[in-house]
Amino acid sequence: MTAQALINGRVLLDRGFEEDRALLIENGRIAAVVAKADVPSNAERVNLAGRTLVPGFIDTQVNGGGNRLFNDDPSPETVAAIGAAHRKFGTTGFLPTLISDDAGKVAAAMEAVRQAIESGVAGALGVHIEGPFLNAARKGIHDPAKIRSISDSDVELLSRPVGGRTVVTLAPETVGLEVIRELSEDGVLVCAGHTNASAECIAGALRNGLRGFTHLFNAMSQLTAREPGVVGAALIDDRSWCGIIVDGHHVDPLVLKLALRAAPLRRFMLVTDAMPSVGGRKSFVLNGQPIIVTGGKCTNADGTLAGSDLDMASAVRNAVKLLDLDLPAAVAMASSNPAAFLGLDHELGRIAPGYRANLVLLDDTVEVAETWIEGVPSGSL
Ligand SMILES: [Zn+2]
User: Fold this and answer.
1) How many A from CA of 190 to the centre of ligand 1?
2) Is 302 a catalytic residue?
3) What is the spatial distance between Cα 343 and Cα 162, in angstroms, rounded to a whole number?
4) How far is the CA of 178 from the centre of ligand 1 (A)?
5) How many angstroms separate the CA atoms of 190 and 107, rounded?
6) What is the pTM for the complete model shown?
């Protein structure tokens, strides 16, 4: 197979941006990063025209896009449609996310993702099951009628292989440490979310395999003087990851800046928590409730936030603008950090030889010009 050479790019490598580098891609992987003069003469050249090439974005929490909601129709076609909608915004890896629903729906979601991965849907890396094993006191937009306690058969279901990663968001105080340990031992990436746990409870959960925190600050016990809560326990821990929704609505930027001062950048990952409105109409229905999108904010009739209208490229731009980060730091939160959370950092999240050629080309205003997944462009250049 002929190698592709992406030439004349400003390429984000581990040591920072390098001008005028060429990326050689072979069999879906990055074969080498070379000087332009060293591009083999038989390589098929793609001129990046001085634009910025960064690792593809990985979204570990995405409920929908392109007018499709995963809960409405958990099928491989929906997975593909959500992936296609978000790819326009730089997402080259994603976990379709099911919010609290009954066991049949959870099983269907897992099976849909298994089939999607098996059939090669571009960018499908696994599934995220958010609920229903949550604390109703922190339900957010989740349907309280769906929230329930976890059973042995649920644990068995969640542990079924999907051919990729399975993330489960649960409330540690409602499921208990034993379940967290069991799921973790079965390879499930367990995150705390929609939880009122104490910091002690979270510390115990972390010792039993808890891997991360779902939309840090939202729908969880807060950091206060005498109760550090989930937020305090999350920020003091050194090994887990925290998803953050940087849309300017879910968390005040000042609060996120404080979090970034409290814990190293590598622990944070940008997530969209996106709804069907991303790449789609600005109204949709969730659990039978009409949701409207105004000023980038999805809310129901009482004003409760119902996921987001955020895409990954906007999240990266917001991280630069609202959190005063430089572009490499913002990109790391969208690529290498979620790759590490997923245990895929040996092949995703960096531009380096041997890595999968999942890439995003950005213009000067950090808008997406093109994406590659396993070396295959979307065709928009
Ligand atoms: Zn949530």
Assistant:
1) 14
2) no
3) 15
4) 23
5) 17
6) 0.98
